[in-house]
């Protein structure tokens, strides 16, 4: 054992934080906590140092920075800067190659992401690929996506340097060969860690144990929903042409995307990895110990038959060197890595146990960045990079079960290098959460999309005849039309003309009550919540830095009672935020999501329909906009909210879950003479929303932007203090670095002469095709895209710096390697459709 | 002179430092283990392939055991063997006598004749040192064990083995058998084309039912665990007193 620290026998009896796992993630977390000023940090690992036997020790260690997801790309870029700083990064370039035409399209899409996130990349010909990597057979390729900044890194060395730095600060005690036996939890809070070398009292524990994380979390009664899964890798060599370079890596890394494989030089060898084989999942409890493992616990015996087909693909592309005389398979492993149900990392405090943090399911390319962000989060409560997509509390209980994890990771594994449509739906583990309207919706031919386990109609086949009636055009390109239907636009137009009913049962809903309820909510919300009983209050929720944590609706049900209604996609995270800030007494919080179903009823005929089924006063005078009232529909008590996310007259109708079918039938029957249709989330979430300029959490709203930039600053600032108030006040006083705008696409015609429709995530460019970046370094990209059928325009939302945030300004959007002209149609929140909201206030 | 060589290999688990046992202690728990052939046998396969490359002839590889032994036969083909034989004796572990009988039976079934049969000196798991000798005796062929050098001569092979203060050289006429040891050569890694060839190779399968009786394993026992640990005594001159303490404790000074 060369690492001196590994032999430290005596553990401190107390620590400010114990980090479990000394792979790249644990080392990085410990290092950045020290940088943030933490002291008395203890870093433990069951294995020896510098390579304790986890995935860090066998990973292929290369980095392709471009990902369609901004969050992941930003973590990767941050990590690359850190590796560079530690001198452990070697830039070699990388090329994703296409064998099939649909992959060429995907590479074009990657070009847009590269430009959106500011990464230099180019599309190159097969001949150019062969110039860069002379051993590749260009005749089987169609194109390449070349990223010159691709690199290989040394995560073990980086980890060692990180430990060294933290130790020099006197902040860190490292103990290798130390097994964690238990994590002590009292009243839902971490109190200590028991190890085979003694106990440590601590209130903060970070689990950075890679594939073992679920097992360690279970000791504390928490779940980290990941599964160890096999990624097969082989080393072939010695190859004279590679040996002749005399260096670790002299040629760009190739990702053979259609074969779901990669090939990289590693000294005299060519390393070949695959994501093409069947999903091979393991149980964290059954991973062999260091002593039992032939190589290391995460390098399991190679199962040859799984790799055979990939070998042929590799020979096809790299035959010229793989056939070298004397070159053999020198090393072949079933390497273990961590997979999660949605493919994103698992970061943040666990929802089950206070003080227990997860830093798991992180790739080498994200490790240092994750450590830095997590340390910020643990120290300040927020991080520079918005991590909502990686937040471990994003999962609902059913999504944390082993069955769900197994099913989704099995389905997701082969998507690692797959072409994944932004709207692509999962096929496994469906029908987990069904609204009471489900059977009715199914009978109407609903096309169900999933959010948070809920099945929600995206559109209804029963409305197909409306497509002709309203003359809705189809999308000519299959990619644009995938997971989409012109029926959505037809439903939208029918709603605007008559009325539509929309299933909104996926909302997460909480009841907050008690003598402390007002103060509690004042502290969380930007808006003043101390409004008259019956008021509906829309409010952003900010983090201490003034960025968006959430946005949601409150209803004041009584002097000391509120209903909180938030999006299904955000509900689990919001729930944790609310619980984290709950005072010890005076406020009770209950999650009523499963007790309430919600049906939206909107359109010019909504009042006619509702008044037909209730004796309560639903006139504009008796039930004004922005208020809520208990009404009765038939014999169903309903909490009716006069609000709208789609911009038309109407209500959200909240009813006891078990009476949902009765509610649906009552509204449907009453609506028939008025031409009421069922409409899907395609209308609610996209077309109706975009026409009204409503912002969506996770798309427009995230912690990297503040309410002033989002156009959601309220006219007045309440006197009560709230989280993020200082930052919010400061933001109001300064010129915003960017403003959220709605843009219209002026011409959809591609060079092939067909109409194309950007789907979101594309870069917004100047008329000259230059990237737009604001003074905070944030680039302008499409946060949401969709049709505005009543406007006859296709709409994009994007943050633009003030010099471009000018109505009428001509800009461009890049989609599939082509640029289309767009115009800034609106700066700020004023809707393009019905700007004065006369329809919903009718 | 060209030789037709048969190499007999055994499928054995590939454990780490600690060998996991089943609950009843009668077997190695192989649920999470890969399988391989022992290092002696790898050298035997390598030697057979080299003899073929140098002198012509053929290299055949044979394994006895459950149908899964095909994996090891194919590995040997990937290294360069021409032909593979699986002697399927079912899932029960065989003792050396039965293994030898199975091989002899297979030799009768095969349409090929061999000039030289090669064995590993002893199996990597059981280490009985018997199968080669038993097969040779049954066939009435000469056999020498512990071999680390093979040379083809006119009318036979010259075998060399190392002994305490030198080496012994044997001249055998063919047909003959030989049990080789690691160090005989440096076995190659299978090439990618070799792997593909092996994957597609058609193996000869011979079924053979071992007679009842024979040796039975009662129990396996794990040696007492020793936790190897490094202890940091200090850096530079300041560490000297601690080093002295340890040396005294060990009784060296």
Automatic annotation (TrEMBL), chain B:
<dbReference type="InterPro" id="IPR033948">
    <property type="entry name" value="ETF_beta_N"/>
</dbReference>
<protein>
    <submittedName>
        <fullName>Electron transfer flavoprotein subunit beta/FixA family protein</fullName>
    </submittedName>
</protein>
<comment type="function">
    <text>The electron transfer flavoprotein serves as a specific electron acceptor for other dehydrogenases. It transfers the electrons to the main respiratory chain via ETF-ubiquinone oxidoreductase (ETF dehydrogenase).</text>
</comment>
<feature type="domain" description="Electron transfer flavoprotein alpha/beta-subunit N-terminal">
    <location>
        <begin position="25"/>
        <end position="210"/>
    </location>
</feature>
<dbReference type="Pfam" id="PF01012">
    <property type="entry name" value="ETF"/>
</dbReference>
<comment type="subunit">
    <text>Heterodimer of an alpha and a beta subunit.</text>
</comment>
<dbReference type="InterPro" id="IPR014729">
    <property type="entry name" value="Rossmann-like_a/b/a_fold"/>
</dbReference>
<dbReference type="InterPro" id="IPR012255">
    <property type="entry name" value="ETF_b"/>
</dbReference>
<dbReference type="InterPro" id="IPR014730">
    <property type="entry name" value="ETF_a/b_N"/>
</dbReference>
